[in-house]
Design a protein that fits this description.
The chain has two domains: 170 residues, Glucose Permease (Domain IIA) (Distorted Sandwich), CATH 2.70.70; 105 residues, OB fold (Dihydrolipoamide Acetyltransferase, E2P) (Beta Barrel), CATH 2.40.50. It contains three helices and 19 strands. The strands form four sheets. Strands 11, 12, 13, 14, 15, 16, 17, 18 and 19 form a nine-stranded mixed β-sheet that branches. Strands 3-10-7-6-5-8 form a six-stranded antiparallel β-sheet, with no helix packed on it. A hairpin with a 4-residue loop joins strand 6 and strand 7. It is elongated. The two termini are 36 Å apart.
């Protein structure tokens, strides 16, 4: 695990101013919350670990990749902050949850390109159109993972803090363990319905009406996201149009039961109104519109 520097103690002043996710429930945790990063992550309980300057770590570092979607842990309203840190400010978001807890999202993205260019400022840290004091829903896209501030140059990650009633930080580990992993982030209400494309999926199993795949990369419309999220998903394929790419490069009609275990597939869903159940992608919750078998 990469060694991480600490978030500056001065961030506490902001409160005066204003292996993959587990599913075990924990006492004192909101019963149904969203894991704050969508996609594959690793994290440990590193709360209180020593950091340079004699301070202790005030959150848990959720290790991820640059530009991975960050989502609202629960419903609430948000503040956007750029905290000074030399030449590379720390881009952060504060979520005031409806439970009364306050959550800090620190080291959000500040890069324009795929590498550590530090050219985006905090403009690239937040979901497009997200404004200061906006109300957000649980699982809604709020920002993107990065390495801004004193995390510059190390593995991109989300430093996640929990502050009950806006007070001192407590260990967030039980909150992360109790949160639910999502297949995709929810867009703002104004953006309406959405469509998913599962690119590079691997077939695990089929029935006459379902297909089970191991997802790889998720593309979302209208959010325009393209991110890695490897997980097992069972989809309703009862109304799917199924085609197979032949060796000659043409597309031949086929059926879902002809999909072979281990072969690659590209799946497109019909347009749907995103709900909490669909975000969690339970068995058969999401439907397939187009299934392309790639061999």
């Amino acid at each position: 695990m990469v060694s991480h520097r600490t978030t500056a103690r001065g961030l506490l002043l902001l409160l005066v101013v204003g292996v993959f996710t587990g599913t075990a429930q924990a006492a004192g945790v909101p019963e149904i919350t969203s894991f704050p990063v969508t996609g594959n992550v690793t994290y440990i309980d590193d709360f209180g670990d020593p950091r340079p300057g004699g301070v202790s770590h005030q959150g848990n570092d959720v290790m991820s990749v640059r530009h991975q979607p960050a989502v609202a842990f629960e419903a609430g309203w948000v503040e956007k902050w750029s905290h000074p840190h030399g030449a590379v400010p720390s881009c952060m978001l504060v979520l005031h949850g409806k439970s009364g807890r306050v959550y800090w999202y620190i080291h959000l993205n500040n890069d324009l390109g795929p590498g550590n260019d530090n050219d985006g400022g905090c403009r690239k840290a937040y979901a497009p159109g997200l404004a200061y004091h906006d109300h957000v829903r649980r699982g809604q896209l709020v920002g993107f993972v990065g390495d801004s501030g004193d995390a510059n140059g190390i593995q991109p990650h989300l430093h996640f803090e929990v502050h009950p009633a806006g007070g001192r930080a407590i260990d967030p580990y039980k909150y992360l363990r109790a949160a639910k992993p999502l297949l995709f982030p929810r867009p703002r209400v104004a953006l309406g319905a959405m469509t998913l494309t599962l690119k590079g999926a691997t077939v695990v199993a089929t029935t006459a009406t379902t297909i089970t795949v191991r997802t790889k990369r998720i593309l979302t419309d209208p959010l325009g996201l393209n991110y890695v999220n490897k997980r097992r998903v069972i989809l309703d394929a009862s109304a799917a149009t199924v085609k197979r790419k032949t060796s000659a490069g043409s597309l031949a009609p086929t059926t879902v039961t002809q999909a072979e275990v281990g072969e690659r597939a590209r799946i497109t869903t019909p347009s749907f109104a995103p709900t909490w159940a669909l975000q969690r992608a339970g068995a058969g919750e999401l439907a397939v519109s187009q299934l392309l078998l790639l061999g």
